Amino acid sequence: MRSLKNAYALIIGVDNEQKTDIFLKDANAFYDVLSDETLCGYNKKNITLLLDKEATTENIVGALDNYIEKMDENSSFLLFYSGHGGYYEGRSYLLPYLASSENLVFGKDLREKLSQMKSKRMFILFDCCHSGGFFDGNKDEIISQAVANHSPIKKASTLEGIAQEIDNEQGMVIMASSQVDERSWARGTCSIFTESLIEAFKAEHLKRKHFLVDEYVRTVETANYVFERTPEKFLEMKKIDVNQVMREKMQMPYANLQMSSDFAICYIPEELKPRISTKKFTNTVQNVEPVVSKESNIEPWERSEGNNLLLFVHGFSGESKDTFGKIPTMLQSDSNFDGWAMKPLGYSPVVQPKLGKDIWGAILDVDKIAVFLKTSITYKFKDYDRIAIVAHSLGGLVAQKAILELDETNRNRISHLIMFGTPSNGISPEVLTKQWNKKYSELSSEGQYIKSLRKEWEKTFDNKYPFKLKVAASSEDEYVSIDSCHKPFDKEYCEIVDGKHLQIVKPEDEKDDAYSLILNTLTGSKFFNQFTNKEEINLTLGKYDAVVKELLPIKDELDKRGLTQLIFALEGLERKDEIYEILNNHPMAKNNTDLMGIIGGRHKRDYLKTYSYKSSQLSSEYYNKALEISAEKEDFSQIYYHAINLAFLSIVTDPEGGESMMLKYAKQALEATEQCRDNVWKYATVAEASMYIGNMEKAKEFYIKASEDAPIREKISMHTNAYAGYVALTNKEDDEFTQFLKAQLLS
């Protein structure tokens, strides 16, 4: 049978109040699944189980010391505690058997023991009422009665965060069963948190998948599952639906979310082993990932010195180390920020997200990261007088939610909030239905979550903010509309910047819009767009008359970019005759298939955002015209460029009836590539066309070639087309090929 020879665990179940045996049942149940060779595969010799009378301070410390001696740098360690906790004389504690003020297990002492372990792969789990209080630190009413003749332990008046005391920020994953002001509920033989944990360790979440990468259950997917299942079990137990949650106190787990690596914690069950794929995907991790040291986790631009903190909160598709590009480094070299510390929030980029089509995470992720941000502001960053937050994408929703949950004292420490590409007003129901099959319906602009957030925000601030606010939308954002970014806020707080969704916070230099906006907002200067011209802004805002009035009289002097803007404005006014007059006669535009492709691409992106029939028709119209001209000229690189986009549009806009046209254009694109030199886009075209005609091995071969030297922006673009086209063609969102695409193009 299988056995994890280098995985160690300490399981503790203790109830000093002698009111229930649920803590012992939790510990026993967790031990049973962990030690089962057909399930998790821990060696029983490497598990210490301490129940009730055995769970003394001496035995707990002794077990930790034993593991310190046994473990090496390749070991993993799991601590599960089901019992009571509290706060005594300025320190957080866990409550052992026969507890008194002299023998508590304090968080600081626990951290010291954990820091002596050579392994940094640690999974720390607490299951008890108000357990989030170990992390959060708000007021609590935990009363821990002394047993027999031992000294009583006083009621906690404030509950400091034990996580702040034991978290070493080196990949340690810490989870608690509930928030500070919540109870941990039980049904049947276990608490619902422990039930959820056991299901995750039994790989219930992996049973939904047809193909598995390897034979391990990992930390991040476990945390995701427990965050999802615990509230669901609460709702089932209370027999209420999610719409009643506002009237009931939900049990929501807590995690520190500083998962700098996603490491294996146990085996999958034996029954799932046949599902492990025999395919080896490039850049897909097959074994336990190494955990990096604290020093290597720290970004080169981070600094702690100063009274003020500039905090960067990335979106769910990004990472703290690169989401904001050069911005932190450029700010660091600016003397105006000598008094500012700078840090990323530091949560895992794999909390839930996927790039490309699945760029969004669930509302559950917004909530759990918002709690993490709120707690960090309150405790980890408590020594900073002012905190400025710069957020991207869903990171902006996280920031708004966290600010609302702060108490007034800590909310007044927020000095600035700057958000880029944040869907503050949600996503339109039509887009959610057509693009994500209602998968993220919680993000709907008409859904309860967004409506509640907006109502609470308006009630709290009424457009009178105790901090400086700037809300930036992009003129080229593929995912978030201007309306969603700007609508909840007065015009004085709204700006337009240049760039696509994932690029708007990656400036090339100090003149770019994003950097200028951050700099000017933090220094109090007026923001002037350095890159986005007024015509682009007017187009974005739908002020087509202003653009036509400005550019039409000088159309003969315009370059390609100016002509593109003029054509977009004329389209907005439905003046098609003038558009074709420009395309047919203007020296710069006449028979310019590249320009037609740019316009076709603009409408294609708009279609993918809005699923507007008009946008799909306009996109097809321009690509078709460009393809016709390219064919006459025998310009083969332009032929495959336009043909592959038409193949994509054929199947995505009409999955039921567009297959024949898709095949026609895919074959035309393939034939054209045979006449062209090798390059990234030729490889990508061959790959996509091969996928459409059913030659999946060739598609994989050429996606690998295309991705070898392609920058991430190009790879994301390839993935967006490939994923959307494949799903429209096969109606399969998660199979071996989509896993291949993700591993090859998004790693």
Polypeptide structure, described:
This protein is of the alpha/beta class. It has four domains: 7-275, Rossmann fold (3-Layer(aba) Sandwich), CATH 3.40.50; 298-532, Alpha/Beta hydrolase fold, catalytic domain (Rossmann fold); 543-590, no CATH class; 601-745, Alpha Horseshoe (Serine Threonine Protein Phosphatase 5, Tetratricopeptide repeat). It has 28 helices and 19 strands. Strands 2-1-3-7-8-12 form a six-stranded mixed sheet, sandwiched between helices. Helix 2 packs parallel to helix 3, helix 10 packs across helix 11 and helix 25 runs parallel beside helix 27 (712-730). It is globular, with a radius of gyration of 28 Å. Mean pLDDT is 79; it is low at 132-165, 280-296 and 349-361.
Report the sheet-strand fraction: 5-15%
CATH first level of the largest domain: Alpha Beta
Total tally of structural domains: 4
Number of helices: 28
Distance between termini? 34 Å
Which helices and strands occur, and which strands form pairs?
Layout: E1 7-13, H1 22-35, E2 47-51, H2 57-70, E3 76-82, E4 85-88, E5 91-94, E6 105-106, H3 107-116, E7 121-127, H4 133-136, H5 162-166, E8 173-176, E9 186-187, E10 190-191, H6 192-201, E11 216-218, H7 219-238, E12 254-255, E13 264-267, H8 294-297, E14 308-313, H9 327-332, E15 340-344, H10 363-380, E16 386-392, H11 394-405, H12 408-411, E17 414-420, H13 429-436, H14 448-461, E18 468-474, H15 482-486, E19 494-497, H16 513-523, H17 534-540, H18 544-551, H19 560-572, H20 576-585, H21 593-610, H22 613-633, H23 636-653, H24 659-673, H25 680-693, H26 696-708, H27 712-730, H28 736-745
Parallel strand pairs: 1-2, 1-3, 3-7, 7-8, 14-15, 14-16, 16-17, 17-18, 18-19
Antiparallel strand pairs: 4-5, 5-6, 8-12, 9-10, 11-13
Helix pairs in contact: 1-6, 2-3, 6-7, 10-11, 17-18, 18-19, 21-22, 21-23, 22-23, 23-24, 23-25, 23-27, 24-25, 25-26, 25-27, 26-28, 27-28
